[in-house]
Amino acid sequence: MSPSKFKSRKFVSVDPSKCTGCGICEYACTLEKGEKAWNPIRSRIRVVRMTPLFNFALACRFCEDAKCVDACPEDALMQSEETGILMVNDKKCMGCDWCIQACPHGGITLHPDTGKVIACDLCEGEPNCVEFCPEEALDLVTTDEDAEKRFNTALEKLPEATDKITETVKTKNWKPLLNEAEDRSMRVTEKLEALNKKASINKDKKNTKE
Q1: What does the alpha-carbon distance between residue 57 and residue 178 come to, in Å, rounded to a whole number?
Q2: What's the rounded Cα separation, in Å, for the pair 49 and 57?
Q3: 34: which DSSP letter?
Q4: pLDDT, tens digit (0-9, with 9 covering 90-100), for 97-133
Q5: Which 3 state secondary structure label does DSSP give 81?
Q6: What b/e sequence results for 81-111 when a residue is b if at least 16 CB atoms lie within 10 Å of its CB, and e otherwise?
Q7: d(CA 91, CA 146)
Q8: How far is the C-alpha of 103 from the C-alpha of 61, rounded, in Å?
Q9: Helical H segments across 36-97, by residue range
Q10: Which residues make beta-bridge pairs with 46?
């Protein structure tokens, strides 16, 4: 594996075998970025719900050969030489979406209100989405190979998970699934409470400074 051209490239990666598609990562992102109202399309990480057994989230990978940067006709996109994090010049960005079409990972989008490009910026190194994922499905990785390995491993687990669901339906032994769902609900509730508490503290700090 050749060394990265960025000194400290890291990006958010998902383990689809753990992701439930709950969307808390999107909520956490919009809160961190100070959006006035929560809306998944304002988030810099996007949840894709394929089936009950296979969900995942997409965010910018800070590619070393960033096709979005090359595709921009206005030269509105640049990358940090240290991390590869995408930087957007809002004055130049025309919202043409060429960068979105060029991205092979679905990691870049347009803000619904401004019409300008938005992408993950890692929240200064401590992404809210990773911190508040109730299933610990999100993590920081350093290479595309690491990210693809997580996807491939999850795909390999799909037949076993499908068989488990099929057997449950046949035997009508719902208790294990109900217990699992209850535990998951508790984790979601705990993360939401912690997230809202953090958002409230940050809001108070901001009001105090003003």
Answers
A1: 25
A2: 9
A3: T
A4: 999 999 999 999 999 999 999 999 999 889 999 999 9
A5: coil
A6: eebbbbebeeeebeebebbbeebeeebbbbb
A7: 35
A8: 10
A9: 67-71
A10: 58
Please give the C-alpha separations between residue 136 and each of 13, 74, 92, 191, in angstroms, as whole numbers: 11, 38, 37, 11
Q: What is the CA radius of gyration of the chain?
A: 19
Inter-axis angle of helices 175-209 and 24-32, nearest 10: 0
Could you state, in order of their start, the residue ranges of all structural domains in the chain?
11-59+120-209
- C-alpha 71/C-alpha 117 separation (Å) is 13
CA-wise closest residue to 15 among 188, 190, 149, 165: 149
> Distance between the two ends of the chain, CA-based, in angstroms?
49
The pLDDT tens digits of the residues spanning 146-183 come to: 999 999 999 999 999 889 889 999 999 999 889 999 99
Token readout for 31 is 């809160």
* CA gap 133, 139 in Å, rounded: 9
DSSP letter (8 states) at residue 7: T
Contacts of 109 (CB under 8 A, 6+ apart): 41, 44, 46, 100, 117, 118, 119
- Residue 140 is encoded by which pair of tokens? 């920081």
Token code pair at residue 13: 């990666």
Q: Which residue has the tokens 């910018």?
A: 60
